[in-house]
Each structure stands twice: as C-alpha cells, then as structure tokens.
Design a protein that fits this description.
The chain is mainly alpha-helical. It has helices spanning 27-35, 45-64, 70-84, 103-120, 133-137, 143-179, 199-221, 244-256, 266-271, 274-300, 330-353, 364-388, 397-405, 410-418, 420-433, 437-443, 449-458, and strands at 7-12, 15-20, 184-189, 192-198, 226-227, 261-262, 311-312, 394-395. The chain folds into 3 domains: 24-139, Fumarase/aspartase (N-terminal domain) (Fumarase C, Chain B, domain 1), CATH 1.10.275; 146-224 and 272-397, Fumarase/aspartase (Central domain) (Fumarase C, Chain A, domain 2, Up-down Bundle), CATH 1.20.200; 409-458, Fumarase/aspartase (C-terminal domain) (Ribonucleotide Reductase Protein R1, domain 1, Orthogonal Bundle), CATH 1.10.40. The strands form 4 sheets. The protein has a two-stranded antiparallel sheet with strand order 1-2. A two-stranded antiparallel ribbon has the order 3-4. The chain has a two-stranded parallel ribbon with strand order 5-6.
C-alpha cells in the first residue's frame, strides 16, 4: 500500500507546482530536485552557509539604505541565522551537478529564507508574503555574484582549518628533527646508496616542505577575501545604489569578524574564477609534498626485516587477513589516496575555471565544491598523518648504523683523506670479504676510530 505525501501548490514563472507540504523550499527548488538527479550528492552545505552569510549582510545593507523595512530585515536576518545553525540542512537537497551558475541552489536558499521569515511574521508557508524570495531576500543580488562569493567564504573557512593542521604537522616534524638530530644514516639518491645524512636532517626537510606549502596556500587564500557580491548579473551593480557593495562588506565583516572587501572590478570577478584555481593549485602542490613525505616514510619503514627498516611507524591496525602479525603503513597509504584525489580535483577545477564564456563562468558549482572538498580532505589527511603516524615514529638506531656502514656511498667520504685509488682498493676488498670500510680502515691503521667518527660527523654539514 502506497501513501501519498501531502503537498501544497505553489507557482513560479513556469506555472503551478506541487511542493511537499512540510518543505521550507518552494516551487523552483522542487523543479531542480527533479531536473538534476545526477550524482545523489548535494551541493556542500558550507557553500549554502556562505551564501546565507551574504544574505544576512545584504539584508542589513538594504535596510540601512532604506530599501527594506526593519521588520523584514530582522526576519531575514533571523532566518539566515537559523540556516547557519544547521537546523535546516535537509532543506538543501539539490544535486551538486546543476545549473552552471548555481541558480538552483541559490533560489533554494532564497525560498527557505523567505518561508522562515514569513512564518516568524505570522505568514503562511509558500505564500511569498510578506517576505518575497526574489524581491526581498534576493534584493540587489544575483546568483552570478552571490554563488561564487558564498563559495569563497566557504572555501576560505576550510582553508584556515587546513593551515592550522599544517602548522601542527610542521611542529611535529620539527620535534622529530630535533629528536633524531644526531642519528647518522645513509642518504639515498635514485633509490641507491649516497653520502651520509642524519635522520633529523631528513625530517627537517619535511618540516620545511610543509612550511612552504602552507605559505603558498596562505598567499593564494588571501585573494578569496575579494567578493563580487552586489555586482548583479554581469558585475556592473545594476539596480543597486552606489554604496550597496560597501555596506554589504561592513555588515559581513561585523558578522564574521573577517576582512572581506568588495571587488575592485565587478565585471572581472564575475567572469574569471582564477582565484579558485590559484588556491586549488596550491592545494595540489601541498598534496605533492605530502605524497612524497608519506612515500618516504613507507620506504624508510619498509621490512621490517627485509627492507630498509630505519624507522618504525606506529601500528594502527592489523595489516593482513591471512598473514598473522603483519603491520602495514596504513596511515601513509590513506594519505597518499587523499593526495591523489586532491590532484584530480585540481584538474577538474582548472578545466572548469578555463571554461567560462563572455560575462560569466557557468561551472561554478563544480569549482566551489571541488576546491572545498580538496581543502577538507587535505585537512583531515594532514591531521591523521601528524597524530596517528609521525608523532609515534621511532628510529631503529642499529639499522641506521648498519646500513650506513655498508653503504656504497660511504667511500665518497673517505676520498679527501685517503685518495680515490686507495679507497677503490678498500671497496674491492670490502665486497670480497664482507668487511665494512670502517673495519678495513681501522684494521689497516689508515684511520683511528676517532678520526673515522669525525669524518662521519663532518659529512652532514654544520646543521648536524
């Protein structure tokens, strides 16, 4: 037996439309839900919340300019805060893949805010009175500016969380660099033995990479504070007062404590989504460095008996359903997959940012969602890499020393003291007898033990 969901009838520019009776959204949202059944994944709620902040600021600005009554202003502001609380997240179900400017989700928000405002003023759900979704909630606004501005607010918020995570990771890496500062080991280039380094120097290099990745992200994120809101349609600000955009920024910054500013060139900011692609590219660079660090850790921990085995990663789960006692570098592997996904998201963002035509880019939902997802994924990956992997790494000092003593890169260190030909003879003898260069040099009294250790210590430079 089937049951029929109660509905109400609303009207939009295309005619009558049945809408679920209890829905806060209206006719246009209902059409979009039906039209865009593609991924089953709704537009990220953070972008909805970013636009809600703008709606709040616009209501304040319109009231200050004498265009909106105090009663309507307060009702819209209260509705925006209700949405921002997360209480109505289920009212925003429209698929991520929708109309290219984001009109579907933008009108979804306008309808929800109008109904919340109307009910607070004693109106009827779906009546569009006394607060109208277009004439009041959307006064002085266009999807073409509201959507990318809301996406910038959302992405910036997630980017700041990522920067916090990167800062914490950098600190942990510096701590490990200090912990392993005096531990000599063999360096490797081309996956082959090379001259000595310390384990601390390796971790110090990782810390430096993360610091630079964060700096690139921070520089790119600064551009997200320039918003096109109030530009209307193509960015000219048509049908708005000259001070409207400045008043929006005042209200928005009061509400958020942020440092947002209106567009220097509204037409430019409506057409070009390069601010997103620049930040996405910084995310990609960060992902590349994280991927290399994760791979380095996997290699250094490989074995534990038949690999390099110079470090031990903390065990987080059994590694095999068939091999008892096996432990895998699971955190590093998960981080690697996040890094690959971030690189794929960046490629999609780049394609979408370059696909605008004339006065508008019509791929904004994809641009906003993918940039946001990259920030969220990387933030989570950075935190688990720091907390569940790097913080618990220990060194196998015996393995480091053993590998160093048998390294094919070690003869280079002896060249200045013993000469190329003499060292070449020692290498041949080492290969023939299995003795290490250290053992041979001491046995033949070519070096004292103190001299040998001094050579090793000097090999890593002044920052040992």
């Amino acid at each position: 037996m089937t049951t029929t969901q109660p509905t109400r009838t609303e009207h939009d520019s295309l005619g009558p439309r049945n809408v679920p009776a209890d829905a806060l959204y209206g006719a246009q949202t209902s059409r979009s839900i039906e039209n865009f059944r593609l991924s089953g994944t709704p537009l990220p709620i953070e972008i909805i919340h970013g636009m809600a902040l703008l709606k709040l600021a616009c209501a304040r600005a319109n009231a200050k300019l004498g265009l909106l009554s105090a009663e309507k202003e307060n009702a819209i502001v209260d509705a925006c805060r209700a949405v921002l609380s997360g209480a109505h997240d289920r009212e925003f179900p429209i698929d991520l893949y929708q109309a290219g400017s984001g009109t579907s989700s933008h009108m979804n928000l306008n309808e929800v805010l109008a109904n919340l405002a109307n009910e607070s003023l004693g109106g009827k759900r779906g009546a569009k009175s006394p607060v109208h979704p277009n004439d009041d909630v959307n006064m002085g606004q266009s999807t073409n500016n509201c959507f990318p501005s809301g996406a910038k607010i959302a992405v910036l918020g997630q980017t700041l969380l990522l920067l916090d995570a990167l800062s914490a990771l950098e600190k942990i890496l510096h701590a490990k660099a200090a912990e392993f500062a005096g531990l000599l080991k063999t360096g490797r280039t081309h996956l082959q033995d090379a001259v000595p380094v310390t384990l601390g120097q390796e971790f110090g290099a990782y810390a430096r990479a993360i610091a630079l990745a964060a700096a690139r992200i921070r520089d790119a994120a600064a551009r997200l504070r320039e918003l096109g809101i109030g530009g209307n349609a193509v960015g000219t600000g048509i049908n708005t007062k000259p001070s409207f955009r400045a008043e929006i920024m005042v209200a928005l910054n009061e509400e958020t404590g942020g440092e947002f500013r209106h567009a220097e060139d509204g037409i430019h900011l409506t057409q070009f989504m390069t601010d997103f692609s620049a930040l996405s590219a910084a995310f990609r660079s960060c992902a590349l460095d994280l991927q290399q660090i994760a791979n380095n850790l996997r290699l250094l921990a490989s074995g534990p008996l038949t690999g390099i085995g110079e470090i031990r990663l903390p065990p987080v789960e059994p590694g095999s359903s068939i091999m008892p006692g096996k432990i895998n570098p699971s955190i590093c592997e998960a981080v690697n997959m996040v890094c690959m996904q971030a690189q794929g998201l960046d490629h999609a963002v780049a394609l979408a940012c370059g696909a605008g035509q004339l006065e508008l880019n019509t791929h904004m939902p994809l641009i906003g969602a993918d940039t946001l997802q990259a920030a969220k994924l990387l933030s989570a990956a950075v935190r688990i890499l720091a907390d569940k992997c790097i913080a618990g790494i220990s060194a196998d000092e015996e393995a480091c020393r053993r590998n160093l003593e048998r390294s094919a890169g070690l003869p280079t260190l002896l060249n200045p003291r013993l000469g190329y030909d003499r060292v070449a003879e020692l290498v041949k003898e080492s290969l023939a007898t299995g003795q290490t260069l250290r053992e041979l040099a001491l046995e033949k009294k070519l070096l004292t033990e103190a001299e040998y250790e001094a050579l090793l210590a000097s090999s890593t430079g002044p920052n040992l």
